[in-house]
Write a structure and sequence with these properties.
Shape: globular
Radius of gyration: 31 Å
Strand order of the largest sheet: 8-6-7-9-14-13-12-11-10
Structural class: alpha+beta
Number of domains: 3
Distance between the termini: 92 Å
CATH class of the largest domain: Alpha Beta
CATH topology of the largest domain: Rossmann fold
Helix content: 10-25%
Length: about 425
């Protein structure tokens, strides 16, 4: 039996389009009847001039391969009963024979040079991705927030692309040597039943609950959306906070943000950096941070500035980053974590002031003492405070920030007068 190489290779191209269906049109030697199967966007048909040849036409959106005519009798003849084979079997067959033939193209795969091998290797990726569901492709992206680099590793796919949109403004070229840490989604979670509980952290019944454990020389953290809710996600990190793996039972976005924020806080604890719970409004080239308990009105007050004071803009509405630069200047950075407000800006400004907000029946503002200001800042950043090295880093950074940035307490109503009172006081 003679193997028709050109026909097999062209058929390999055909079977690796995004929607694989096959059409074989065969013509018997003496009759004009045809046997066909649905196969789009290409068709294999018998030649009108030579009943023993197969002509392959590839059209539609696929790269142009052209018409291939074969003068010798084909491997498939009219006496065979054609049945649609399972696409996986056909795909395996055609790609199993590809290594038998040398590549003529010396260009890199993905160069779009139109060569058969270039398209065939692209198609191999598409096939494995869409037809062999148990094989996962990992996507690694690197980001820089407040001058600190980290990596996120997730399975490739449309859902993941949507989840990573807030991180896009911070995307950069990957370099593992420069990354402080990495976070990766883990499909298979280990048995952690022998974990040892260290502590639990929760601000109240309606706030996130963090359960901290030690497990096989690593930290295990389980997170629930409220105090009484079941665990929604878990992550495991080495004690140097260089690599974390996480899983989720509810939301990939929720689990990724929780893990990335925590790893960022711990990895930068000794690098003059803290991630704070605050809303930041920029005016005249300076960032003004509004602190306060959840529900106090941080976002509302920022919006009052923007709506009533010309030239104001929002930098971040939930988790900006404060960093003390090498020259001692304190700057506030945008981040991929902005709560319910989609404000993901890769910008930074000198910190103008910190304002602790309190709801009240009248508007009044006063300057905080160092001790009062320290208490405000202390409850506004996240991290493992019971780890001595990290705690020392957090406290040292707070001390440097409070030595440079003035702090105020604002009792206020949700009105324009409160915004003007605050602005006139802190911008002096």
């Amino acid at each position: 039996m003679e193997f028709n190489v050109q026909a097999a290779m062209a058929a390999g191209v055909a079977f690796h389009t995004h929607h694989v269906v096959a059409v074989f049109q065969m013509r018997k030697a003496k009759k004009d009847s045809q046997k066909s199967l649905p196969f789009s966007p290409c068709a294999i048909r018998s030649s009108s001039k030579n009943s023993g040849t197969i002509a392959i036409n590839i059209n539609g959106a696929m790269p142009h391969v052209g018409h291939a005519a074969v003068s010798k009798p084909p491997l498939i003849n009219a006496n065979m009963i054609l049945r649609p084979l399972p696409s996986r079997v056909l795909c395996l067959f055609f790609f199993a024979i590809l290594p038998l033939f040398p590549r003529k193209s010396t260009k890199n795969v993905g160069s779009d040079d139109g060569s058969f091998w270039d398209f065939a290797e692209k198609s191999r990726y598409i096939t494995e991705k869409h037809y062999f569901c148990k094989k996962y492709y990992r996507m690694k992206n690197c980001y820089k927030v407040a001058g600190h680099k980290f990596a996120i590793v997730l399975p490739d796919g449309e859902q993941v692309t949507e989840v990573l949109k807030p991180y896009e403004p911070f995307l950069m070229e990957c370099d593992d040597d420069d990354c402080l840490f990495s976070v990766e989604l883990k499909e298979e979670w280990p048995d952690t039943s022998d974990k040892e509980k260290i502590t639990m952290s929760c601000e109240g019944l309606l706030f996130l609950r963090f359960d901290f454990y030690e497990w096989q020389g690593k930290w295990l953290v389980e997170v629930a959306p409220t105090y009484e809710a079941p665990v929604a996600c878990s992550f495991i990190t080495d004690k140097a906070f260089k690599k974390a793996v996480f899983q989720t039972a509810i939301s990939l976005r929720f689990a990724l943000d929780i893990t990335a924020k925590f790893m960022f806080a711990m990895s930068t604890a000794c690098l003059n950096t803290i991630r704070v719970h605050s809303s930041v409004t920029v005016k005249d080239g300076k960032g003004y941070l509004f602190f306060g308990k959840s529900g106090t009105g941080k976002s509302t007050h920022s919006q009052l500035w923007i709506n009533n004071i010309e030239g104001c803009e929002l930098l971040n509405d939930d988790n900006p980053v404060l960093r003390v630069e090498d020259n001692g200047e304190v700057r506030v950075y945008g981040s991929p974590w902005s709560g319910k407000t989609p404000c993901y800006r890769n910008l930074d400004f000198p910190a103008g002031a910190i304002v602790d907000l309190h709801q009240a029946k009248e508007n009044r503002i006063r300057t905080l003492s160092i001790v009062e200001a320290y208490a405000v800042l202390y409850v506004s950043f996240s991290g493992f405070r019971f780890i001595k090295e990290a705690a020392d880093g957090f406290f040292a950074t707070c001390e440097k920030i409070l030595g440079k940035v003035p702090c105020y307490s604002l009792d206020c109503l949700p009105n324009a007068e409160a915004a003007w009172l605050c602005y006139k006081t802190v911008s002096q």
